[in-house]
Amino acid sequence: AMLVLFIFAIFAFSTCGSYSGMFKLSVECKNREESNLAIEVQFDYPFRLHQVYFDAPTCKGENEERLFLVGDYSSSAEFFVTIGVFSFLYSMAALSVYCFILEKYRENNKGAQIDFVVTAVFAFMWLVSSCAWAKGLSDVKTATDPERVITLISACDEPENRCREVYDPKVSGLNTSVAFGFINLILWVGNLWFVFKETGWMAAFAGTYVPSQEKQPAPDSFGQGGYGQQDPYAGSQGGYQPEYGQQGGYNEDGGYSQGYEQQPTSYSNQM
């Protein structure tokens, strides 16, 4: 599971952090010599668009005017990439633990319990960062829409001038980053269940978990352990306890009496 988290974390932060986009505009003035038919505007991560500028003709025989895009969306983008990078690092560390010190990880379930808490934190962070970046990306698309940028050019307010978009920015990579963000959210939430089963908490809730350091209490006495029950052979009759004082011995006639009641009393009587 950690290998999958490792891979998708890379996809998430790389598709966002490595993005670079561009769009083109055309401003055709009444005086063709003042026109600029290929205004190129480039922007990239972390999307501080208020620092992105371009030069556009005024169509009034003057120098070109410098214009800036609108908005700063670096906070949501950088937050998203940061969560992706830390998820990547933690997944790599967890894989190393599973491969090399698994016994230490399972000792007293402490490793699994810490892993569960960290996994829950990352799942929550993926939820927050993905939602924030989805909103930020929507604003980036709006701010870099060529039709919206054209409204910033003063020359385009004059009816005799013609302004149009030439090339739209490709934001498919950014759309993919948002998709990977929510996929990571699902994967980290799903991984919670697998880590939870290793913590021992499930058995504790069911009442069957006994810590390895504790011993089962011994019975207080044999009487409580089941050995103090009355012996069926040691009842009121005393069990098999022959009373040789009453049943054995020789009588006055010289015979062995009472020990064998149905036998002849003596050898002399048989004679």
Automatic annotation (TrEMBL):
Residues 1-17 form the signal peptide. Residues 1-200 form the MARVEL domain. PROSITE patterns: MARVEL (PS51225). It is found in: Membrane. Residues 216-271 are annotated as: Disordered. Coiled coil: none annotated. Belongs to the synaptophysin/synaptobrevin family. This is Synaptophysin b. It comes from Salarias fasciatus (Jewelled blenny). The lineage of its organism: Eukaryota, Metazoa, Chordata, Craniata, Vertebrata. The gene is sypb.
